[in-house]
C-alpha cells in the first residue's frame, strides 16, 4: 500500500485500525516518525504517542522447540488497537443509575400509582426539592433508561409516548357547524392568560346504543379537569350533567369549545340563560381542542377503549378527576392544576 492509496483523513479524528497498520509498515522499514506523520496526515506528536503506547515486548524462540527465547520490542498495530478500544470503553461519563436508585424507585412508584410521566416526576421532584441534583437524573436520561429497559416502566406504559403518531385530517368541506365557529372565538382565549375558557368532549366505552360515557371539560389556562359520568352520548344526558356544573362553576364558564357531535347540538339552549359563549371546532380537526384530546388519553389509563362504562361508578370517575388535577404539569412550572 502506498501513501496515495490512503484517503485524505478528516482532522481531529482518532487513528483507525487501517492507519495503525500503515504506521507499523512504515516504521518497520525505518521511516522516521515525522515522515510517517506527513504520510498519514497527522501531527508528528500523535505518531510519537501512538508508537510509545503500541510498543510491546515480543518473544522469539531460536533453534527449535527447546531453543532459547530472545526478547525484543516492536510496535504492534493489533495491540495498539486493542488498547485504544479498551480506553474508549472507560472514557464515558459514569452511569448514574446506582447513585440515583432512590429517585428512580420513587419515579417508578409515581408512574405506577399516579401515572406520572417522566417529565412530571423530574419537574415535581426538583420543585419540591425531594432529592439533591446528584441523586436525580434529567428527563432525557430517564427516558433513555426506559428505552433501554433498565426500569420496571416500559414505553408501552407511557400513554403519551405510545400514542404519538402523525394523523391525516379529513376534509372539513361541506360539514355544517352546530353553532358559532371557533374562528369567532376571542383571540384572548388562545393566549391562555384568563381563567374560565373550557374545552368539552365525551369519552366513550363500548359503542353500543346507550352505553354510559364520561363528559370531560378541561380549563385551558390551568388544565383543571371536570369529569362527570352520564347515562349516554346524547344531548339530554349532556344537558342534565351541565345543570350541576353550571350551579357550581357558572361564573367561571366564560366560553366552552366543543366538537360537532350530536350530543353537543343543544349547548346554546343549555346556556341561553347564562353569560357562557359556545363555540364549535372545525370538523375532523382535533388540534382545535388539543388540551381536551391530550387529557382524554390520560383518562383512558383508567377506562380503556372498548370496555363498558356501565359498571363504573360516579365516585370512580371523580377519583380519576382528582388524580389528573393533582398531576404536576410542565406548563404550570410543575405545579398541579
UniProtKB/TrEMBL annotation:
Lineage top rank: taxon: Bacteria
InterPro entries listed in its UniProt record: Integrase_cat-core, IS30-like_HTH, RNaseH-like_sf, RNaseH_sf, Transposase-Integrase, Transposase_IS30-like
Protein name from the UniProt record: IS30 family transposase
Alphabetical UniProt keywords: DNA recombination
Metal-binding as UniProt keyword: no
Record-linked NCBIfam families: transpos_IS30
Residue span, Integrase catalytic domain: 182-337
PANTHER family: TRANSPOSASE, TRANSPOSASE INSI FOR INSERTION SEQUENCE ELEMENT IS30A-RELATED
Compositional bias annotation for Polar residues: 313-323
Region (Disordered): 305-337
Organism: Lapidilactobacillus achengensis
Pfam families associated with the record: HTH_38 (PF13936)
